[in-house]
Design brief:
By secondary structure, the protein is mostly helical. It contains four helices and no strands. The longest helix has 30 residues, at 12-41.
Length: 104
């Protein structure tokens, strides 16, 4: 299936679609960069630097890191080697929903 560029006009709905696209772009590009940054802040099982820098309560670093890592890994899943596309989509939807409901 050939991909084509879909032009968005300046309507309220098109602007919402554009904002959604921009949010997805940010998730895709920033997620792995943030994960790499978090990795430099974790010393073995000690998440205190991450917790301090992010302003988390003590003990929340582990839970946050696992949720963030799960989203990044789901986004990076290769449908050819990691199960069916439907399974990957379901995993990503689950992890994104968990992240949004748990973080913030």
């Amino acid at each position: 299936m050939a991909t084509t560029h879909i032009h968005l006009t300046n309507t309220e709905l098109a602007n919402r679609i554009r904002a959604y696209r921009n949010a997805l772009t940010l998730v895709i590009s920033e997620g792995p960069l943030l994960l790499a940054k978090f990795d430099t802040m974790i010393d073995g099982g000690d998440y205190s630097e991450l917790e301090t820098e992010a302003g988390f309560d003590t003990g929340d670093g582990t839970n946050f890191y696992s949720n963030h890592q799960a989203v990044v890994l789901a986004l990076q899943a290769n449908p050819a080697t990691a199960g069916s596309t439907a399974d990957n989509a379901a995993l990503l939807a689950t992890k994104l929903s968990q992240y949004v409901s748990r973080v913030g």
